[in-house]
Amino acid sequence: MGEKVKGKLVIIGGAEDKERDCVILKEVVKMCGGEKARMVIITTATEKHHEVGFDYEYIFGKLGIRDIRILNIQNREHANDNINAETILTATGVFFTGGDQLRITSLLGGTKVYQALHTALEHGVIIIGTSAGASVMSDNMIVEGYGDDSPKKNTVNMAPGMGLIEEVVIDQHFAQRGRIGRLLGAIAQNPYVLGIGIDEDTAIVVEPQETLKVIGSQTVMIVDGTQITHTNVSELKPRDPLALFDVKIHVLPRAYGFDLKKRRPVLPQQ
Description:
The protein is of the alpha/beta class.
């Protein structure tokens, strides 16, 4: 088993507060260097890249960052551009917006920008993602699935992610879109992988020491399948319901943490 994460990540469940207290985004700004931060906003996930990019440029500017650059990488040629890769390497923070996670992996995978992201993470650049930008962080990601449904064999469709954090699968807009069934479906396919469901306006800050802490207004659900004693997933037809015995679930609100290596929740520091 290798390192799960080689740098610091902020993984947001989507719909983060952008108008009131902005708790998550203020923490992002602080982590990236405050007024001295060099923020790069990557809008690859969305087809409304100009609109979304300008929105986040305005928000981060309002929160004090002066050096903000938007990378509208919309094809593989852009993703192999040396200037775009260098822009990432000289940033202190890289922010992935929401949209469609397959746009990120299909356009960036294996390119110079992809390599720059991994190099930047190892050298201390904070990488942040919200919504689709959160799902894409893991080495295997949820592409689509049925929310508000009981766990079934085809509740969830998976694809390779960006591999910025390993041995986990992340789902976002979690409680708001009833996605517990599809996260359980993902864990049933490989109980070794840790499931992380992140609510809206909630985020996890993942440290290189393989620990995470919850920030924001709602909760994070951790699904650990390593102690599953029985599952019928390999025997089912596509719409048949799953059987899962002895799944371990942790629910973590703000300030609670989790040790990814030991697979244990961590109480808030007093």
